[in-house]
Amino acid sequence: MSRLAPADVACWVLKSSRPATALVPAWTPGAEAALTRCVRRSYRLGLMAPGQPCLLWISGRNSPGVHALGELTGPVGEPAGGPEVPVRWRLLADPVPRAELLADPVARDAEVLRMPAGSNPSWLSAAQYAAVLALVGDAGR
């Protein structure tokens, strides 16, 4: 795909190699937590805005997949360590495993699955985001 346009992005995907409970100690399913995520400097940062949905993708060998849903709570910041975005997350009781996403005919084409070593942020189209939400189910919203 060429450069993204705002209409292409229904949801941002922010990745971590650390488990959710390492990001927020004592984080329990259904609970909300606010934290910032580092992002790579690119034109995509100019497309990010407060209120946009996002999801937390945990990578690696131990339980890869979608672990939290959230939304951007502020603009991209530029502290000394590099760009970052503030997010309010809600931890899912049942993460959506990578294998389930790969089995879904729409979600399996998501950038995070096609290019797992890609940098933050990744993104989902409207159809891919809807497929993820369907897999999350009502309990996760």
Explained architecture:
There is one protein chain. The protein has 141 residues and is α+β, with helices and mostly antiparallel strands. It has one domain (7-58, 66-136). 18% of the residues lie in helices and 31% in strands. It has a six-stranded mixed β-sheet with strand order 2-5-4-3-1-6. Strand 3 (53-58) and strand 4 (65-72) form a beta hairpin. It is globular and about 35 Å long. The chain starts with 10 loop residues before the first strand and ends in a 5-residue tail after the last helix. The model has no long low-confidence stretch (mean pLDDT 92).
Average pLDDT taken over every residue: 92
Main beta-sheet annotation: 6 strands, mixed
- Work out the helix count: 4
SSE topology string: EHEEEEHHEH
Class inferred from helices and paired strands: alpha+beta
Distance, first to last CA: 30 Å
Number of strands: 6
Radius of gyration: 14 Å
Please describe the topology of this protein.
Blueprint: E1 11-16, H1 20-23, E2 32-38, E3 53-58, E4 65-72, E5 84-97, H2 98-103, H3 111-114, E6 122-124, H4 126-136
Parallel strand pairs: 1-3
Antiparallel strand pairs: 1-6, 2-5, 3-4, 4-5
